[in-house]
Design brief:
By secondary structure, this protein is mainly alpha-helical.
Length: 80
């Protein structure tokens, strides 16, 4: 399993949802009770805890599954 690719997909999903909602990193970070620099790192693929994933999903009004979208394909590709 390639964890770095998994976190990159998750970070891209977060960024895409944030941008669809026309939110800045600073706005989402405040709603999620996170540091904006930390959120920026998460969007670029830095690993994070599942509790942080939950905070972000609630702040975006999406499900945790939305953040994990596409991860299965990354993990399946890595196994081949």
């Amino acid at each position: 399993m390639n964890r770095s690719r998994m976190f990159k997909v998750m970070g891209e999903n977060i960024r895409n949802h944030r941008m669809k909602q026309l939110q800045t990193i600073e706005e989402l970070a405040e709603k999620a009770n996170l540091d904006d620099k930390n959120l920026g790192e998460i969007e670029r693929g830095k690993g994070f805890h599942i509790s942080t994933c939950y905070q972000i999903s609630r702040a975006l009004g999406i499900t945790v599954e939305d953040i994990f979208a596409g991860v299965d394909e990354v993990l399946t590709t890595d196994d081949e």
